[in-house]
Amino acid sequence: MSNVTSLSRRAALGVLSVTAASWWPVSRANPLPLRIGFQKGSINLNITRSLKLVEQRLPGTPVQWVEFPAVPQLLEALAVGSVDFGAVGDSPPVFAQAAGKDIVYVGAEPPKPDTSALLVREGSPLRTLAELKGRRIALQKGSSAHFLLVQAVKAAGLKWSDIQPVYLAPADARAAFERGAVDAWSIWDPYYAAAEIDGKARPLVTSRGLTSNNSFYLASRGLVQQEPVLRQLFAALTDADAHVARHRADSAKQYAEFSGLGLATVLRVLDRRPRSPVGPLSAALVAEQQKVADAFHELGLIPKAIRVADIVWQPA
Description:
Blueprint: H1 7-13, H2 18-22, E1 34-38, H3 43-51, H4 53-57, E2 63-67, H5 71-80, E3 85-88, H6 92-98, E4 104-108, E5 116-121, E6 136-139, H7 144-155, E7 164-167, H8 170-178, E8 184-188, H9 191-197, E9 201-206, E10 216-219, H10 221-224, H11 227-246, H12 248-259, H13 263-271, H14 283-298
Parallel strand pairs: 1-2, 6-7, 6-8
Antiparallel strand pairs: 3-10, 4-10, 5-8, 5-9
Helix pairs in contact: 3-11, 9-13, 11-12, 12-13
Family: Belongs to the bacterial solute-binding protein SsuA/TauA family.
Subcellular location: Periplasm
Keywords: Signal, Transport
């Protein structure tokens, strides 16, 4: 895939996706809706939605918010042009790019190394990463928790074949974890916080020192052509982050009501979540994401080597 820096030239040649062909710039009358995909775990997006910050930043542009149960469905919708914008962790876009999905990295939040962990049950005898050898470990395949486990196994001096990964969605993984069907669980907030608050889990390790646990914003190719719209989206998300910092208690209550999580769980999530303004990807972030892609390729978990920079938006 050619570099995203050539998108304007490709647009001139008419080599655009269906989404680009249908996208209405904000300067035109009766624009089509800006479709934003989100999940319950995306704090910035959920606060932005509840405060109508995008609508304030882009007056006159209809905004549709589309909720997804998990990242794979969101990425598929982005790739086929069903939504224009969404947030994901570090690993899902690697798997999507390797599968040939038409997506573009456009923005990122600062690292959050304390917001995911490898959990064991409170009474577990496991105390070190080396003791993971031969153990059954639950995780969502292709998620940020997948890369955390890859790094944890490496840090322990083990091989991937030394463990028994059990690929489960978070809800199923928690059930398996609590009944003892797996020995450990690699997971992110808010599931991590909920397991801690319930008193049934403790972190064997967090991501700190293993992964940065980065969060990215991806867009359809049509939206990439509209830099002013992207800039306003970043500003709205950054406004939401500032609102959370200034109004922590109210934001926690609002997020708890929407997500169905307990207030104590939400407060724990916010306690270890750093300030998270949104902006374009730095060269350092692209390089770090390339390491994620290379790690999965070395293990044979993606079918081919990929170059992350090929699908990173470069602002004018």
